[in-house]
Write a structure and sequence with these properties.
Elements: E1 4-7, E2 10-13, H1 24-28, E3 31-39, E4 42-43, H2 46-59, H3 68-81, E5 87-94, E6 111-117, H4 124-129, E7 131-135, H5 156-167, E8 173-176, E9 182-185, E10 189-194, E11 197-200, H6 211-222, E12 226-229, H7 234-238, E13 242-247, E14 251-258, E15 261-262, H8 270-283
Parallel strand pairs: 7-8, 7-14, 11-12
Antiparallel strand pairs: 1-2, 1-6, 3-4, 3-5, 5-6, 8-9, 10-11, 10-13, 13-14, 14-15
The structure holds 4'-deoxy-4'-aminopyridoxal-5'-phosphate.
Length: 285
C-alpha cells in the first residue's frame, strides 16, 4: 500500500503528492519544518515541535494556515491514516505558490505537508562503536544572516558541511560558529561530559535549539548531573571524557573521535548510556 501524504487538508498517494513548481519553498527554500518521532502511536513532545514551528514561521513572516490544534490533529491523523505507530514525521510549511520573483506577498496560500514514514536510523554499529567525525570548514550560518534557531527549509549550510564529512568518510561533522566556537553537528546538537559536568553550547552559539537537547538537559538534571550551557571550543571536545549528539531521529548517538583525536577511552561512555536509557524510558512510556 502506498503511503498517504497530507497536503493542506487532503491525502494523496505518494506518487500523486505534488506541490507547485512556483512554490517559494521549492524556488527559494522559503518555509519552515519539523522532524518528529512517534513512539507507540504517540508523537514525542508534539506540542514543543508545534511551538518551535510557529516561532520559526513568525520569524520569517509566514502565517501558518489554521491553529496549532488543527496542525496537531493533522499530524495525529496522518499517522492513523497510514496505520503507523512508530515513525518519523516530517511537517513542512511552505510559503506557497508565487511568481519567479522574491516577493513573498504574492504567495497567498502557504501549504502544509505532512509525511509520516518508517524510520531510517543510523546503522546499529554506529551506536555500538560511536561516530568518528571531523570539523567542517563551512561555519554555521550566523544569527545576523539567518538565525539558526529558525528551522527553515534552507539547509544548504548544513548540507555543504555534511558533504565535507562524506568526502573524508564521516557520516556527521561538527560546525563551528563565526567566532570559532562549537555550534552543532549538521543535523544534531552536541554534548560533552567533562570533569563530571554535562556541557552543551548555548542557544546563542548559533544552534537550532533541539527538542532532544532540551529533554536530555531535563533528564540529566533529574538524574542529579550538573549541566552547563556555555560556549565551548574544539579543545573542550578533544579533552572531554565523553561526547554525543542528540536529535529526534538519532536520539542520542556517541562520538568517539573528532579531527583524529580519540575522545575519552574511544568507546561510547557510561553517562551517555545512562541518559539514553532514561531517554528511551521517556519516549516509550
Ligand atoms: N540541529 C540541527 C541543525 C537540526 O537539523 C536538528 C534536527 N534534525 C537538531 C539540531 C536536533 O533537533 P531536535 O532534537 O529537535 O530534532
Amino acid at each position: 500500500m502506498s503511503i498517504k501524504i497530507y497536503i493542506s487538508g487532503q491525502y494523496f498517494d505518494k506518487e500523486d503528492a505534488k506541490i507547485s513548481v512556483f512554490d517559494h519553498g521549492f524556488l527559494y527554500g522559503d518555509g519552515v519544518f519539523e522532524g518528529m518521532r512517534a513512539y507507540s502511536g504517540k508523537v514525542f513532545r508534539l506540542e514543543e515541535h508545534i511551538t518551535r514551528l510557529w516561532e520559526s514561521a513568525k520569524s520569517i513572516f509566514l502565517k501558518i494556515p489554521g491553529t496549532p490544534a488543527d496542525v496537531i490533529n493533522a499530524v495525529n491523523d496522518t499517522l492513523k491514516v497510514n496505520n503507523l505507530t512508530d515513525a518519523y514525521i516530517r511537517l513542512i510549511v511552505t510559503r506557497g505558490a508565487g511568481t519567479l520573483g522574491l516577493d513573498a506577498d504574492l504567495c497567498k496560500e502557504p501549504q502544509i505537508i505532512i509525511i509520516a514514514a518508517q524510520l531510517a536510523l543510523y546503522p546499529s554499529e554506529f551506536y555500538e562503536k560511536g561516530l568518528e567525525i571531523v570539523t567542517a570548514s563551512t561555519t554555521r550560518t550566523n544569527a545576523g544572516m539567518l538565525s539558526p534557531q529558525i528551522k527553515s527549509l534552507n539547509y544548504l549550510n548544513n548540507i555543504m558541511a555534511k558533504i565535507e564529512g562524506h568526502l573524508v568518510g564521516c557520516v556527521e561533522v561538527l560546525l563551528l560558529n563565526s567566532k570559532g566556537e562549537v555550534a552543532e553537528a549538521s543535523g544534531d546538537n552536541i554534548f560533552i561530559w567533562k570533569r563530571n559536568v554535562l556541557h552543551t553550547p548555548p542557544a546563542d552559539a548559533g544552534i537550532l535549539e533541539g527538542i532532544t537537547r532540551r529533554v536530555v538537559l531535563e533528564l540529566a538534571e533529574e538524574l542529579g548531573m550538573k549541566t552547563k550551557e556555555a560556549p565551548m571550543t574544539r579543545h573542550d571536545i578533544y579533552t572531554a571524557d565523553e561526547c554525543f549528539l542528540t536529535g529526534s531521529a538519532a536520539e542520542l548517538i556517541p562520538v568517539v573521535k573528532l579531527d583524529g583525536r580519540i575522545i575519552g577511552d574511544g568507546k561510547p561512555g557510561a553517562v551517555m548510556k545512562k541518559l539514553l536509557e532514561r531517554f528511551q524510558q521517556e519516549t516509550r512510556k
